From TrEMBL:
PROSITE patterns according to UniProt: PROKAR_LIPOPROTEIN (PS51257), TPR (PS50005)
Keyword Mitochondrion found: no
Keywords, sorted A to Z: Coiled coil, Repeat, Signal, TPR repeat
SUPFAM superfamilies cross-referenced by the UniProt entry: TPR-like
Signal peptide feature range: 1-20
Domain of life the protein comes from: Bacteria
Protein name in UniProt: Tetratricopeptide repeat protein
UniProt xrefs under InterPro entries: TPR-like_helical_dom_sf (IPR011990), TPR_rpt (IPR019734), Ycf3/AcsC/BcsC/TPR_MFPF (IPR051685)
Coiled coil: 438-465
TPR repeats: 602-635
Entry-linked Gene3D superfamilies: Tetratricopeptide repeat domain
Length: 653
């Protein structure tokens, strides 16, 4: 993208708009030549006039800070008239421009130019104010006077023109530039018009005009980088491939200087045009042998193109030079691992300093050690890292370590690590999660249930006891031990009958067992304890809708939940399903599509397919069902639905 940033603020439009700081006045030696006064003398003013002047300046500054621009404008202008001060005239002009008082802006600019007729910012304000009043001829004169005062560097010159042209929306610079470009004489004005058209609301409709203007600019100045980039952006309106081909051809022509080539290479890199970026950056590298940023972009481009051997060479050199040490050492390791240079990968991972890539580097290093049967090195890597990071990262590393020990069957060491951590932090839920995860892998269902209850009974924190029961329940459900999971929750609820979390989870655990009466009773108890419990409202409403009874109550419950969480996919699905049960097929389709677009779960697919089938959109229903079956071939929900629609001919084609 063109690196021209348009910011519509007075301090960007006017370099001279900053408040002057007080300066220490020193007495010059007699031999020194007298310096011109920075501000016109006010000696000719009476004491009363000077008092009024100082009051006006103070009032104007205060009003300006408080955005009372009308007050600021009148007082700055009065002070400028009294003193002829360039600074006060500039402030008066700028505030008037903000207030869209273009007549006063021009009057203040006249005072400004009397003080300094070489100040480019004065001509900018005059140009904007004239154009805002549709004084095209005056605007042309001011632009003509402005152009010689702009920077000589072509991209900087264009930047200032566009900056000015984007300041005031009432000033129609496109029309002005269009008139001037009827007989073009300035590639900068032509490029500025092209930029404004390209950034307008309808650039596609102005494509030919944009290209014509840029062709003129580049004919006059073939190495005008901003025009080149804009031409690429114009091509991208139709095709990114055209832009890529055009910018690549510029690199091949070698018409840019080294700095311009680097900038274009950087742009190509950000556009993910890595082959062209490499061509540009290699040209730069030939002129700047030791430029580390160029080397970095070359290595990064090779990595993006899967040239891991070349990428590794570049990242290794940069890491050794400590250039962007964190990222270069990480990608040195990653690329080395990809080309099976394990010793170098180990070394580079070890070089990654603490920071953004540290955690990833340590876990990947541990994984690499483990994959190559260096288990003790893997464990040591994780433990060493745990001593250097904060609490959250330490927990993640410990979890990674325990999972690694568990995967390799070293259950005893995994258990010792958990027990050691529990002695230090006995109230951390994640440690109990790891403990239960380990027990779930090593115990029978009945043994695991007993362990869950023992762990829960041995902690004093009531919320932690609840968490342990719920975590244990989820592990049991994943093992399809739904009855044991339900019994575990049932026993826990008997001990704390008003625990909302346990009651709600017990209700959910009843669903796969088809204990609908128990489910409804528990959900109603949850809502009695917490009438605004949106998940309980949704679950009860959905259960009633699925049983096809009390549909008005079901709809009211689900709608109440939807008001609280309109983006909740489960609630959207429930709302669609209850509308289906009520015969509101269009509403049902709306909510089920909304849910399906976010999550293509078997349950939502089953519901959506059924609604589509009922609405005589059988082919669409079959597509939804078939996709769900491919993704979840053993899901009982989708299988149960398809058995009710044998005519769809999906289960037995």
């Amino acid at each position: 993208m063109l690196r021209i940033l348009i910011v519509s603020t007075c301090c960007l439009l006017l370099a001279a708009c900053a408040t002057n700081q007080p300066k220490t006045v020193e007495t010059a030696p007699e031999s020194s030549a007298p310096k011109p006064q920075e501000h016109p003398s006010v000696a000719k003013l009476s004491v009363e006039e000077r008092s009024q002047l100082y009051f006006s300046i103070l009032l104007a500054d205060i009003a300006n800070k408080q955005k009372l621009y009308d007050v600021a404008q009148s007082n700055f202008f009065y002070a400028a008239e009294q003193t002829g001060s360039k600074q006060l005239s500039a402030k008066a002009a700028m505030v008037a421009l903000i207030e869209r008082d273009y007549v006063t802006a021009l009057d203040a600019t006249s005072l400004w130019l009397e003080a300094d007729n070489k100040d480019k910012n004065a001509y900018k304000v005059a140009l904007v104010a004239s154009l805002a009043q549709n004084e095209i001829d005056d605007a042309k004169v001011y632009l003509e006077q402005l152009m010689p005062l702009l920077p000589a560097h072509q991209d900087e010159k264009l930047y200032e023109i566009i900056q000015m042209a984007s300041f005031q929306e009432e000033a129609d610079f496109i029309s002005l530039f269009e008139v001037l470009n009827e007989s073009p004489s300035s590639p900068y004005i032509a490029t500025a018009e092209a930029y404004l058209r390209l950034k307008s609301a309808t650039p596609e409709k102005q494509y030919d005009r944009i290209q014509s203007l840029l062709d003129y600019s580049l004919d006059k100045k073939p190495n005008f980088l901003s025009a080149i980039e804009l031409k690429g952006e114009a091509y991208a309106l139709h095709s990114n491939d055209k832009r890529a081909a055009y910018l690549s051809s510029i690199i091949d022509q070698k018409i840019l200087d080294t700095e311009q080539t680097y900038k274009l290479g950087e742009l190509l890199y950000t556009q993910k045009n890595y082959p062209a970026a490499l061509k540009a950056l290699k040209q730069v590298q030939a002129k700047r042998l030791n430029d580390e940023q160029t080397q970095f972009l070359i290595a990064s481009s090779h990595y993006a193109l899967d040239n891991f051997k070349k990428a590794n060479h570049g990242f290794w050199q940069l890491a050794q030079q400590n250039y962007k040490k964190e990222i270069t050492s990480y990608y040195c390791a990653d690329s080395a691992a990809r080309i099976n240079k394990l010793a170098l990968a180990y070394s580079c991972y070890e070089m990654v300093p603490e920071g953004r890539y540290y955690m990833t580097a340590r876990t990947e290093l541990a994984q690499l050690y483990a994959e190559n049967n260096l288990m003790q090195q893997a464990i040591n890597t994780l433990r060493h890292a745990q001593r250097k990071v904060g609490l959250n990262d330490r927990q993640r590393l410990l979890e990674f370590e325990i999972n690694m020990l568990t995967q390799t069957g070293d259950y005893q060491q995994a258990d010792r690590r958990i027990q050691s951590a529990l002695q230090v932090s006995p109230d951390k839920p994640f440690l109990y999660y790891l403990k239960l995860q380990l027990l779930n892998q090593t115990q029978s269902v009945q043994e695991f249930r007993q362990s869950v209850e023992e762990l829960s009974n041995n902690v004093t924190n009531s919320q932690l006891r609840t968490d342990i029961i719920i975590i244990g329940t989820h592990f049991l459900q994943k093992r399809n031990s739904h009855l044991i999971a339900y019994q575990l929750l049932e026993s826990a609820v008997e001990q704390t009958p008003d625990n909302i979390d346990l009651l709600y989870n017990k209700a959910l655990a009843a669903e796969p067992l088809e204990y609908y009466s128990s489910m409804e009773r528990d959900l109603r108890q949850v809502l009695k304890l917490d009438p605004e419990h949106s998940h309980a409202q949704n679950s009860l409403g959905y259960t009633l809708a699925d049983l096809n009874r009390s549909l008005d109550e079901a709809k009211a419950l689900i709608e109440s939940a939807y008001e609280k969480e309109p983006n909740n996919v489960a609630i959207q699905d429930s709302l669609g399903w209850v509308h289906y049960r009520l015969g509101n097929y269009e509403e049902a389709l709306k909510y089920l599509k909304m849910a399906y677009e976010q999550q293509e779960s078997p349950e939502i697919a089953s519901h959506l397919g059924e609604v589509l089938w009922t609405m005589n959109l059988q082919s669409q229903a079959i597509q939804v069902w078939q996709k769900a079956l491919r993704m979840n071939p053993n899901n009982q929900y989708i299988l149960r639905t398809l058995r009710r629609f044998p005519e769809a001919n999906i289960l037995n084609p």
